[in-house]
Amino acid sequence: MDDEKWVVRLHSDDIATAHSIVYALHRIMGMPIEEAWKRMAEWQERGAADVTSFTNHMEAENLVERFLVFGVQAAVVQG
Amino acid sequence: MAAAFEATRVVGGVRLELSGESAEALAEIFRMLSKKIIKGDPRLRRRMFPVAYDRQTWASDFWHDHGESMRNKVCDALDRVFANWPGKGPVTLDLNAVDDWCLALTHAQLLYTGRRAGDLAQRARAGDQAAGNVLWLRSAQSELLIAAVPGLR
What is the SS3 assignment for B10? Predict the structure, then answer.
């Protein structure tokens, strides 16, 4: 499954809020708040936002696990 | 549920103050969440941890590899919430404790609704108590996070 690009995608739903998404991006990925607001806006407008990618799918899965534990709907997508 | 959940930024974190009624209700919700996770409630599990891949076999593999770890991490967070807060009185949280409360308040909403909840405000106005609980939990979470990180306001 490796030697490919594995994208971590956050999906919007009716549970997560703008605040919880910005906070999760900041705390889990260390993303600066200003950048996290931009990603959140994309998440809100498009219904999903790609936040990073890996060449190793396990790294993508580990990050998705962290978002899911936080309550944020996340998935691994082949890029 | 009364809207008595106040979060104030203090040195080193956030101070939470809840009315007696709100604290009692929230503690009961967190206990119920913990019990249902430990019991392995399948509906709650699907709500908390939606499929991580479109392809079913990969989604199953993901659950096999990460499911127990995710359940344990949420339960550990709930245990830490109660270790620091006996279900009454004010509590001061550092950022790691804010993480625990944040995820607990999100997953607690999933006791009452799926991730496609529709217009919760309308449902609450029509007398849907579950929708009212979700909105209250969401509002508490936003208040907590805004107090925790100044840039969130």
Answer: strand
Angstrom CA distances, A44 to A49, B18, B85, stand at 8, 31, 34
The string of DSSP codes covering B27-77 is HHHHHHHHHHHHHT-HHHHHHHS--S-SSHHHHHHHHHHHHHHHHHHHHHH
List, for residues B46-86, the tens digit of each pLDDT value: 999 999 999 999 999 999 999 999 999 999 999 999 999 99
Q: Number of residue pairs across A and B with CB atoms under 8 Å?
A: 95
Residue B54: count of CB within 10 angstroms of its CB: 11
Q: Which long-range contacts (CB under 8 A, 24 or more apart) does B122-128 make?
A: none
User: Most distant CA pair in chain A: distance in Å?
Assistant: 35
pLDDT classification of B1: cutoffs 50, 70, 90? very low
Contact status of A34 with chain B (Cβ, < 8 Å): yes
Sign of the four-CA dihedral A27, A32, A38, A39:
negative
The answer to whether residues B28 and B88 touch, using CB atoms and an 8 Å cutoff, is no
Measure the N-to-C terminal CA separation of chain B; round to a whole number of Å.
Answer: 25
Does B52 contact A75 at a Cβ distance shorter than 8 Å? yes
End-to-end CA distance of chain A: 12
For A71, the closest of B62, B106, B151 (CB atoms) is B106
Q: Which two tokens stand for residue A13?
A: 């739903």
CA separation for the pair B90, B92 (Å, rounded): 7
